[in-house]
């Protein structure tokens, strides 16, 4: 009975955490990711920082919304398949509720200058949060001091920004290079 009660508490905490994060986060997945890190890594200590970075990378490379993908991975990591179901529901429910309400009243709000000003202000805040996420992710790569990963980061940015190389190709090649680099590092460590 105690294990069942503990499981219910765990699932409730997973649902509540993802629901609140999703309900009060504006600007998309890149905004919710640092909040997930703060909640699941720093506060609850369910996942370590490096693993969270890996989950975010997986969530970003999978098709779909990064917030939903990452919440599925976090839920699965913490509580298996049922945890993934709980976190995906907790992440998807608030936007569905909010969008349903907003779409009902959209025609009345469309021309309102106050709503327009709020949207412009939120765009500025979202831009600042996204810059913060990028700085955090880059610093995580640089802290590892692996020259291959640092070069890969720079080359991926240059290829995407300046040469308009398709993101899917960049992700595929970066994953392949990362796999080869990790395999080489492990063999090198085994030889020593």
UniProtKB/TrEMBL annotation:
Annotated compartments: Cell membrane
Residues passing through the membrane, by range: 12-33, 53-76, 82-106, 118-138, 150-182
Membrane topology: Multi-pass membrane protein
GO molecular function, one term: chromate transmembrane transporter activity
Cellular component terms per the entry's GO annotation: plasma membrane
Keywords associated with the record: Cell membrane, Membrane, Transmembrane, Transmembrane helix
Record Pfam families: Chromate_transp
InterPro entries documented for this protein: CHR_Transporter, Chromate_transpt
Family: Belongs to the chromate ion transporter (CHR) (TC 2.A.51) family.
UniProt protein name: Chromate transport protein
Lineage: unclassified sequences, metagenomes, ecological metagenomes
């Amino acid at each position: 009975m105690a294990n069942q009660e503990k499981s219910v508490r765990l699932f409730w905490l997973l649902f509540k955490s993802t629901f609140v994060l999703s309900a009060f986060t504006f600007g998309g997945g890149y905004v919710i990711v640092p909040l997930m890190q703060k909640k699941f890594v720093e506060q609850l200590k369910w996942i370590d920082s490096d693993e969270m970075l890996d989950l975010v990378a997986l969530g970003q490379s999978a098709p779909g919304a990064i917030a939903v993908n990452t919440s599925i991975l976090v839920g699965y990591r913490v509580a298996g398949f049922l945890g993934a179901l709980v976190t995906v529901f907790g992440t998807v429910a608030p936007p569905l509720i909010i969008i349903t309400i907003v779409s009902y009243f959209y025609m009345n709000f469309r021309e309102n200058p106050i709503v327009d000003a709020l949207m412009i202000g939120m765009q500025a805040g979202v831009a600042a949060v996204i810059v913060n996420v990028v700085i955090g992710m880059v610093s995580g790569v640089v802290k590892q001091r692996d020259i291959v990963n640092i070069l890969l980061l720079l080359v991926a940015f240059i290829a995407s920004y300046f040469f308009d190389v398709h993101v899917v190709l960049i992700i595929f090649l970066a994953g392949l290079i990362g796999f080869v680099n990790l395999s080489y590092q492990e063999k090198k460590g085994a030889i020593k």
